[in-house]
Design goal:
Radius of gyration: 18 Å
Shape: globular
Number of helices: 5
Distance between the termini: 56 Å
Strand content: under 5%
Number of strands: 2
Largest sheet: 2 strands, antiparallel
Length: 190
C-alpha cells in the first residue's frame, strides 16, 4: 500500500514539472486565492459588518488560500488512506497560515491577523479552533469541490493556455508592488 501511494505521489509531482502542470497549478492557485478572498471578506462582513478587509496584495486574492489547496491536491494522490487525508487537511493549512503569519511579521513588522485572544493559539498566527475550521474546509475542498474545479479547468484549458502566463505576470507585478508599498510604509512609519 505504501509503495502504491509513493508511486501515485511521484506521478503527481512529475506532472508539476511540465508547462501544462504549471498552468494547472496557476489556475488552481488563482481560483482558490479568489475564493479565499471572498470567504475572508464575507466572514469579515458577518462579524464586523464591513465587507472589505485589508488585504496584503492589491488584487482580490488571498495567497494562503491558494497555496494550501494546491499543496493538498498534489500531496494527496488518488486512493490515499483517509487518515492520511485528514492529517494533511489539518496540517497543511495550519502550517501555511503559521508560516505566512510569521514571514509577514518578520518582513513587514506587522500582523495581518491575530489569534492571541483565542484559546490554544501559537504566537497569534494560528489557533486550534481555526485550524479545525481550515481542516474541515480543506476536506470539503479535496473531496467535493476540487473535482468540479478540475472539470472546469478541463473545459477552459484551451483559453487558459493563452492567458496563464499573463495571469502569472499579474501576480508577480502585484507582489512586487505590494512589497514596495509595505516596505515604504515601514520606512515612513519608522
Amino acid at each position: 500500500m505504501t509503495h502504491s501511494w509513493l508511486k501515485g505521489l511521484e506521478l503527481q509531482l512529475v506532472e508539476v514539472l511540465t508547462m501544462e502542470g504549471a498552468a494547472a497549478i496557476l489556475f488552481y492557485f488563482t481560483f482558490y486565492s479568489f475564493i479565499g478572498w471572498l470567504l475572508e471578506n464575507s466572514y469579515n462582513y458577518v462579524t464586523k459588518r464591513e465587507f472589505f478587509k485589508e488585504n496584503f496584495l492589491f488584487g482580490p486574492f488571498k495567497p494562503m488560500y491558494g497555496v494550501a489547496p494546491v499543496l493538498l491536491v498534489y500531496l494527496t494522490p488518488q486512493g490515499s488512506h483517509w487518515v492520511y487525508v485528514l492529517l494533511l487537511c489539518f496540517i497543511i493549512p495550519t502550517v501555511v497560515e503559521y508560516a505566512s503569519g510569521t514571514l509577514l511579521q518578520k518582513l513587514f513588522q506587522r500582523q495581518w491577523w491575530d489569534y492571541s485572544e483565542t484559546p490554544f493559539q501559537l504566537h497569534g498566527h494560528i489557533c486550534l479552533p481555526f485550524s479545525i475550521c481550515w481542516g474541515s474546509l480543506s476536506l470539503i475542498c479535496i473531496k467535493w469541490i476540487h473535482p468540479g474545479i478540475v472539470s472546469l479547468y478541463g473545459s477552459i484549458e484551451p483559453l487558459w493556455a493563452w492567458i496563464w502566463s499573463a495571469v502569472g505576470l499579474y501576480f508577480l507585478a502585484d507582489l512586487v508592488l505590494t512589497i514596495r508599498k509595505h516596505t515604504l510604509q515601514e520606512i515612513v512609519g519608522a
